[in-house]
Amino acid sequence: MCGIIGYCGHRPAVPLIIEGLKRLEYRGYDSAGVAFARKDGFEVIRSAGKLGNLEEKLGGLYVYEASAGVGHTRWATHGAPTEQNAHPHTDATGRLVIIHNGIIENYAELKAEMAAQGVTFRSETDTEVLVNLIAKGLDETKDMLQALSWALNRVEGAYAIALQNIDEPDAIYAARKSSPLVMGLGVGENFVASDIPAFLPYTRKVVFLEDGEMCKITASSWSVFQVRDITPVDKEVHTIDWDVQAAQKGGYKHFMLKEIFEQPKVIRDCLAGRLDLSASRVCLPEIENMEIPERLIIVACGTSYHAGLWGMYLLESWAKVPVSVEIASEFRYRDLILDEKDVVLAISQSGETADTLAGIRIAKERGAKIIGLCNVVGSSVARESDAVIYTQAGPEISVASTKAMCSQLTALLLLALYWGEKRGSLDSKLRDGAVRGLSELPGLLEAELPALRGKASQLARKYSEARSFLYLGRGLNYPLAMEGALKLKEISYIHAEGYAAGEMKHGPIALIDPNFPTFALAPVDDLYPKVKSNLEEVQARAGKIIALTGPEAELAVDDPWRVPTPQSPLCSFVFLPALQLFAYEMADYLGKDVDQPRNLAKSVTVE
Ligand code: AGP
Predict the structure, then answer these.
(1) Kindly report the CA angle at 6 between 165 and 109, in degrees rounded to 5?
(2) Stretch 168-180: mean pLDDT, rounded?
(3) End-to-end Cα, the chain, rounded Å
């Protein structure tokens, strides 16, 4: 997620903006910039990389006369993380300057329309398109609020923007839709920002903007309007009692918990521009020029490997693509049988995992095509792939991967639908059900997450004495069982194994006793009878069982955990946060360092 901050007041704006951006660094970014008005136009200073690079540039300039300005840390979505693509962006005439957090879904058609009218663009970003559209509105209406209303009513997608007009250098305009934006109200100074920490040292008085609202601030005034028709809006002023640290986690105790609860938004963002509800179809322009692979080899590590294993079931069943899923550290050392007819799908949240990167390099040497499925724009895996599908999950701060996996499953489901549709192997009823279910998923999750957390907390306390867990699942729930086990062991340090339920009788059943609990994934699907009999075998040996299942299941286990179970594979999107929250609550209850578990790194960039 990007970080934005705007300031109008009595202090030098630029140093205050830089400090504010530092307090937004937790949001993740790969370039940064500031802008303020000088007599002859906007001064825009930007740099790729960390804020230190920007500060170095500013060190050589006199930037203290402005008492208004905007600043931005960019998490790249459209266009690589370069200085050219960094924000702020001015319109072609230089009258306006903008910073933006979000995704403009229809930016391509807007850009083509304005280019045809002679507008020139200097970056690859959707943001530069937006500022030129607002400039066009200003030409026609001669009024900033009307220009904003006109332009934003033409935009599809998500935005939190702040912008300045060179003719009103002491004012800032801002607006939001699906991306956060708050106002900070000081004494002789006012702020707009993505999040409270940006200005918390200066004021605790906050106004939360809602979707479809825009505002204008100066050093001594603030006002809020409906984007739709510029109707004035009365807003309540809140007083914040958080400290900066707590505020960076949005009030959550840990980043991991915050990221688990971000999963509804992650699904929305991953679907943005890719799911055409009216036509009930998927668009993946990133791979539209690629043939459906004769054979797909998925290469990944850890949680990303579990996501790949999950995707295999769908890609085989819906798209009829033969799939193998390989652990990258094994794949890279095998005597591989690979050629130009093969496609490798490299799944990596960070895009920097050494084993995965090595795997795609070896595959490329053998002529295979590479598709990257990454979260970090411009990462090594993304750059070295022939095509890349970005998961748009925003930066994942906690070492334990949660929302990233949710976005990977979303992208893999889209891929299976896309290739299935293209091959004509997808039953239209199944396709329509999946598309509709996907679009309803964020709302279902938003409603269910608090209850999932409550149950997870209760079960974690009940089973906190356990020293080892067996996680069981069949079909799509087998990779989820492995992921649940990984989550538990990596943050609570309790040993756990994820196993195909059908494999239990081939060994692990010897472990079952009253002190070796089983966590089963048992939705009422076509494999349910098999899972049920596996659980009876566990119970016959006095093993305790937690079973994630549907409301209608008659499961006589110690702890049935009944959750909504939408039609498979959508049920996985409810099971996944339940597994994550059980691990989270267990680790938190046991007093572990949830966000930075011992011995672990967020990205394993070495072998
Ligand atoms: C997951 O919770 C772990 N932190 C780890 O297994 C991670 O998924 C793995 O290192 C792969 O990382 P990547 O997705 O960035 O390649």
Answers:
(1) 60
(2) 93
(3) 29
The sheet carrying 559-562 orders its strands as 495-500, 468-473, 518-521, 545-549, 559-562
Atom nearest to 301 CA in ligand 1: 11
With 80 as the cut, is the pLDDT of residue 602 above it? Answer: no
Range 448-592: architecture per CATH? 3-Layer(aba) Sandwich (3.40)
Predicted model pTM? 0.74
Token reading at 304: 């990303």
Chain-centroid distance of CA 463 in Å reads 31
Pocket test for ligand 1, best of 401, 488, 606 (most atoms within 8 A of CB): 401
Q: E-assigned strands of 301-341?
A: 323-327
The CATH T-level fold of domain 249-426 is Rossmann fold (3.40.50)
Q: Could you identify the atom of ligand 1 that is nearest to the CA of residue 603? A: 15
Cα four-point dihedral sign 348, 351, 353, 358 = positive
Q: Kindly report the protein residue whose alpha carbon is nearest to atom 6 of ligand 1.
A: 302
Q: Taking the CB of residue 511, how many other CB atoms lie within 10 A of it?
A: 15
Taking CB atoms and a 6 Å cutoff, what residues make up the pocket around ligand 1?
301-304, 348-350, 353, 356, 399-401, 490, 603-604
CA of 130 to the centre of ligand 1 (A): 35
Q: Is the pLDDT of residue 244 over 70?
A: no
SS (H, E, C) 537-563: HHHCCCCCEEEEECCCCCCCCCEEEEC
Gap from CA of 361 to ligand 1 centroid (Å): 19
Q: Which fold has domain 3-246?
A: Glutamine Phosphoribosylpyrophosphate, subunit 1, domain 1 (3.60.20)
Query: Which pair of tokens denotes residue 365?
Result: 């040497």
Q: How confident is the model at residue 383 (pLDDT cuts 50, 70, 90)?
A: confident
pLDDT value, residue 348: 97
Q: How large is the greatest C-alpha to C-alpha distance in the chain, in angstroms? A: 82
| Residue of 575, 324, 583, 322 whose CA lies nearest to 473 | 575
Task: Return the H-helix or E-strand segment holding 168.
Answer: none
Backbone dihedral angles phi then psi of residue 180, each to the nearest 5 degrees: -70, 145
Which residue's entry shows tokens 């489901």? 413
Instruction: State the average pLDDT over residues 215-227.
Output: 98
Q: Supply the pLDDT for residue 242.
A: 65
The pLDDT tens digits for 44-79 are 999 999 999 999 999 988 888 899 999 999 888 777
Q: Give Cα separations from 489 to 96, 148, 405 (angstroms).
A: 52, 50, 17
- In ligand 1, which atom is closest to the CA atom of 602? 4
Which one from 2, 8, 215, 406 is the annotated catalytic residue? 2
- Rounded to the nearest angstrom, the distance between the alpha carbon of 35 and the centre of ligand 1 is 37
Using DSSP's 3-state secondary structure scheme, residue 436 falls into helix
CATH 3.40.50.10490 residue ranges for the chain: 249-426, 448-592
Compute, in degrees rounded to 10, the torsion defined by CA atoms 308, 309, 310, 312.
Answer: 90
The whole-number pLDDT of residue 2 equals: 83
602 catalytic? Reply is: yes
